[in-house]
Amino acid sequence: MPPNAIKDKGGINLATLQERINQLQAEIADLKRRFPAHSLKPAMFQQLEDLEEELEKLLQQQKEEQFHPNS
After folding, report:
1. SS3 for 50?
2. Which residues form a coiled coil (predicted)?
3. Is 47 inside any structural domain?
4. Which residues, including other chains, have CB under 8 Å from residue 21's CB and lie 6 or more apart?
5. Is residue 59 in some structural domain?
6. How many independent structural domains does the chain possess?
7. Quick check: helix, strand or coil at residue 29?
8. CA 33 and chain centroid, separation
9. Global pTM value
10. Residue 62 within any structural domain of the chain
């Protein structure tokens, strides 16, 4: 099994976790590029908050796995 295929106790593939983190970061950057200079629509702001919240959870999960790989 390749090193990046190691799974945590919940069965999450760490490579897949990193891929999703990268995807979320790209989505956030793209969304911010599309923000108008004025009058941000509530739907866009909510989408940004949702993406950032998911990203934060995944980064925390990744951090915990790096410090406790076999817990």
Report:
1. helix
2. 7-68
3. yes
4. 55, 58, 59, 62
5. yes
6. 1
7. helix
8. 18
9. 0.74
10. yes
